[in-house]
Sequence to fold (59 residues):
Amino acid sequence: MEIGTLFLKCNLTGIITFSELNWITTYQSNFTRLEESIAIKLGRMLDAGSINIGCHLNS
Fold:
C-alpha cells in the first residue's frame, strides 16, 4: 500500500478503514516528509469530518 494511493481513495470514497489507519501507524516511522504531510492531512480530514472511519461494502 502507498499513502498517496490511500489518500486518493479516501478522498474519492470519504471512508478510511481501521486496517488502513493501522497501516499508517505501523509504517509512519518509515515515511518521507511528503508521506508524513499526507498522513497529517488525512488526520485533519478525519477531524473535520471530511472523511469517516468505516468499511467498504462490496457491490
